[in-house]
What does this fold into?
Amino acid sequence: MKQDNCIFCKIIAGEIPSHTLYEDEQFKVILDVNPATKGHALILPKEHFANLYELPEETAADAMRLAKRMMKKMTEKLDCDGFNIVQNNGEVAGQTVFHFHMHLIPRYKNDGEILKYIAGEPDQEELARIKKMLTE
Ligand code: 5GP
Ligand code: ZN
It folds into this structure.
């Protein structure tokens, strides 16, 4: 259940304080301590799973249902103009806390390019090769 030295397990156990927006048997939703935008929050399953690879499918489905509910409420209350749901898996993908979490990031007009990636320009052959690899 709880993993030693996991900051999110400590937050869930109440050993480290956080601003809790929502809590039920399965999840806790807290404000991110270093928010990318006003209202940036995190959905944490109470049970420790390192990432989405480890998370049971049922919990993943419940987390997405909760994300949708939180997004609706936060959009109404914060009057934001859009919303990003972000979920990082592995250090190379930007994960820094290895307890599964989903970022709820309200977006506002002119809040900057906080989640920009560079669009690739592959040729059709490469796309076809990748499709073959992933569907064989
Ligand atoms: P990741 O980069 O792993 O997807 O996201 C980890 C997030 O956890 C970061 O946005 C970071 O600001 C947040 N975070 C790290 N430590 C704490 C903490 O002690 N309390 C809270 N509320 N957020 C934290
Ligand atoms: Zn944990």
